[in-house]
C-alpha cells in the first residue's frame, strides 16, 4: 500500500502535550464518548485472550482498557512519534505485563509488517487521513474477528469546525489536515472487506460502529 503524508504535520498537532492531556483525562474520567462504548461492545462479544491492533493509538488509553479487559497482546501504530513514551508509561503505571508492539509510522504504508489481529480498533483516526478507502481496506484486511471505528458525523457544524481547523492549520503552516469522509461510504467500505455491523451508536459529533467477520 502506498501510504501518504508528511509526518511532521501530525507531529505538530499530536505532540507530547496532547499525549499527556489525553492520559490525564483518561485517569480522571475514563475513556472518551466513542472509545468507551466501542470497548464495551467488544467486551460484550468476547475479548478474553484476544490479540488487538490499534491504529492511531495515541497515548494508548483504549489499548490499556482492552488489555485490562482480558486481551492477551497488542500491536499499536501511531504516525506521531510523541505518543509511544506516554503510552509505555501508562502501561507501566497500570502494571500491564502483556506484550505491546509499538510502530511509529503510517499504518497504511506499513500494514504489511503486521499480521491479522482478532480485534482492530480505530478511534477518531480515519478523519486524520486523506485516503479513507486505503485506511479502511488496510484495517479490514487485518481484522480477524472485530473491527471498531469512530468517525465524524456529516453535520454542518462539523463541516464548519473542520473548515476552520484546516484554515488555522494552513495559517500556522502545518501540513496536517482533517477530513470529513462520507460516513455511509466508510460503513460500506468496511462491509466490503467481509464484515457485518454488530453494534453502533452516535454522539453529537461522532458515529461509532463495530463489525464482525462472518464465520
Ligand atoms: C484524533 S487522534 C486520536 C488518538 C486516539 N485514537 C484517541 O482516541 O485518543 C488521531 C491519531 O491517529 C494518528 N494517525 C492518523 N493517521 C495515521 C496513520 N495513517 N497511521 C498511524 N497513525 C495515524 C494520529 O497521529 C493521531 O495520534
Q: What can you see in these coordinates?
A:
There is one protein chain. With 215 residues, the protein is α/β, with parallel strands linked by helices. It has one domain (7-153, 182-213): Rossmann fold, CATH 3.40.50.150. The chain contains nine helices and seven strands. It has helices at residues 7-13, 16-29, 35-44, 61-68, 83-93, 107-110, 132-141, 156-171, 183-192; strands at residues 51-55, 73-78, 100-104, 117-123, 143-152, 195-202, 206-213. The chain has a seven-stranded mixed β-sheet with strand order 3-2-1-4-5-7-6, with helices on both faces. Strand 6 and strand 7 (206-213) form a beta hairpin. Helix 2 (16-29) packs parallel to helix 5 (83-93). The radius of gyration is 16 Å and the shape is globular. The relative contact order is 0.17. Residues 10, 14, 22, 35, 55-56, 58, 77-80, 106-108, 123-125, 128-129 line the site of S-adenosylmethionine (SAM). The site of S-adenosylmethionine has 19 residues, from strand 2 and helix 6.
Amino acid at each position: 500500500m502506498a501510504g501518504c503524508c508528511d509526518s511532521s504535520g501530525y507531529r505538530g498537532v499530536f505532540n507530547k502535550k496532547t499525549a499527556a492531556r489525553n492520559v490525564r483525562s483518561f485517569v480522571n474520567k475514563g475513556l472518551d464518548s466513542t472509545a468507551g462504548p466501542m470497548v464495551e461492545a467488544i467486551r460484550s462479544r468476547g475479548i478474553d485472550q484476544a490479540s488487538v491492533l490499534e491504529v492511531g493509538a495515541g497515548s494508548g488509553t483504549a489499548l490499556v482498557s482492552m488489555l485490562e479487559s482480558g486481551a492477551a497482546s497488542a500491536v499499536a501504530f501511531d504516525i506521531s512519534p510523541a505518543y509511544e513514551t506516554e503510552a509505555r508509561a501508562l502501561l507501566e503505571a497500570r502494571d500491564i505485563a502483556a506484550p505491546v508492539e509499538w510502530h511509529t509510522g503510517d499504518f497504511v504504508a506499513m500494514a504489511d509488517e503486521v499480521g491479522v489481529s482478532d480485534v482492530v480498533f480505530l478511534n477518531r483516526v480515519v478523519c486524520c487521513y486523506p485516503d479513507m478507502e486505503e485506511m479502511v481496506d488496510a484495517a479490514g484486511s487485518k481484522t480477524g474477528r472485530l473491527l471498531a471505528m469512530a468517525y465524524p458525523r456529516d453535520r454542518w457544524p462539523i463541516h464548519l469546525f473542520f473548515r476552520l481547523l484546516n484554515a488555522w492549520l494552513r495559517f500556522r503552516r502545518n501540513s496536517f489536515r482533517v477530513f470529513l469522509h462520507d460516513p455511509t461510504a466508510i460503513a460500506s467500505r468496511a462491509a466490503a472487506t467481509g464484515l457485518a455491523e454488530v453494534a453502533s451508536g452516535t454522539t453529537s459529533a461522532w458515529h461509532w460502529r463495530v463489525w464482525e467477520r462472518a464465520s
